[in-house]
Write a structure and sequence with these properties.
Elements (H helix, E strand, L loop, with lengths): L13 H14 L3 E5 L2 H12 L5 E5 L3 H4 L4 H4 L4 E5 L8 H7 L11 E7 L12 H13 L3 E5 L3 H8 L3 H5 L4 E5 L10 E5 L1 H13 L8 H13 L4 H15 L5 E2 L9 E6 L3 H9 L6 E2 L4 E5 L6 H14 L1
Parallel strand pairs: 2-3, 2-4, 4-5, 5-6
Antiparallel strand pairs: 1-7, 6-7, 8-9, 9-11, 10-11
Helix pairs in contact: 1-10, 2-9, 11-13
The structure holds pyridoxal-5'-phosphate.
The site of pyridoxal-5'-phosphate has 12 residues, from helix 2.
């Protein structure tokens, strides 16, 4: 409420500048840029790394492909080249095979690989440092850049027991969300080299994302980076307790090995819609992903008692 403000379009908002310095430091990058959302951060990064017609390699169920309204095509003018992964992780040999021959004029140009950690579509799964490093090496051999969709990078860091910068070090640029688990009302941050962020600032302006007294968004971001990261471990523990109860229900199909952070994805054999309604009647809100699939997410406003109440309700329904 008392954040000092200024005009961020002129780099004069002290709260934005402070958040960006903190974010760059935590990601081990030279510079950072406040953006309106994770989607805006990924789009800004892709448009800054590529040229029209380029191909961008990513996992088949990547958020950038499934859930960002086709911005990669509509705005960045790039084509996604999809590779099915294993719990969200790409096989470096598959990536190698997907890279186009630069000397063949018929081929599109491959210029970027996008990774996602944690991987939302795979159930909030964590990609290990070794897995990421292997992809980074393939990228380096072929002169490609790597962008990390790290919307939930701090969940990955907590699960791996490393600092976020160790994960970010495996990519040239990274986006992370201030919203979601970090509990801010709005915002995300894109980090990379000074040169990259200068380019990204222009792209952000094109997208209408240059904001004036944006310190009112940055200030809660600063609080989040100071106070909201360590507690993500509670969300992971709560998700685990909930998942272990869910897996016991005859109507539920859940691979417990995918429950690694704060997300639980599972199928309801008798159909997801009725399941959602039955829980909603008991004040438990869950997200229907498809005809048979449900996503549950734990966060700061879901206590252990809420989880235990949910388990009681689930048992009473089965
Ligand atoms: C939520 C999410 C995004 C997009 O973030 P928004 O702030 O909702 O635009 C990007 N990637 C992943 C993996 C996400 O879960």
């Amino acid at each position: 409420m008392n954040a000092p403000l200024g005009d961020d379009v002129k780099n004069e908002d002290p709260s934005v500048n402070r958040l960006q310095e903190m974010a760059a430091e935590m990601m081990g990058k030279e510079a950072a840029l406040l953006v309106t959302s994770g989607t805006a951060g990924n789009l800004t990064a892709i448009a800054s790394h590529t040229q029209k017609g380029d191909e961008v390699i990513m996992e088949a169920n990547a958020h950038i492909f499934t859930s960002e309204a086709g911005g990669i095509a509509a705005v960045a003018n790039c084509m996604p080249h999809l590779i099915p992964g294993d719990k969200g992780a790409l096989d470096p040999d598959d990536v190698k095979k997907a890279i186009r021959d630069k000397n063949n004029e018929h081929h599109p140009r491959t210029s970027l690989i996008c990774l996602e950690n944690t991987h939302n579509g795979a159930g909030g799964t964590v990609i290990s440092i070794e897995q990421m490093k292997a992809i980074k090496e393939v990228a380096a051999e072929h002169g490609l850049k790597v962008h990390l969709d790290g919307a939930r990078i701090f969940n990955a860091a907590i699960a791996l027991g490393v600092e976020a910068k160790e994960i970010a070090a495996q990519a040239d640029s990274v986006t992370f969300c201030l919203s979601k688990g970090l509990s801010c009302p709005v915002g995300a941050v894109l980090c990379g080299t000074k040169e990259f962020i200068a380019k990204a600032r222009r792209v952000r302006k094109v997208l209408g994302g240059g904001m004036r007294q944006a310190g009112i968004i940055a200030a809660p971001g600063i609080v989040a980076l100071q106070t909201m990261i360590d507690r993500l471990a509670d969300d992971h523990a709560n998700a685990r307790v909930l998942a272990e109860a869910l897996v016991e229900l005859p109507d539920v199909e859940l691979d417990l090995s995918t429950v690694q952070t704060n997300i639980i994805r599972f199928k309801v054999k008798s159909g997801a819609a009725a399941f959602v309604d039955k829980l909603a009647a008991k004040n438990i809100l869950v997200h229907q992903v498809s005809e048979s699939a449900i996503r549950m997410v734990t966060h700061r406003h879901i206590s252990r008692d809420d989880v235990l109440y949910t388990i009681d309700v689930l048992k009473s329904l089965s």
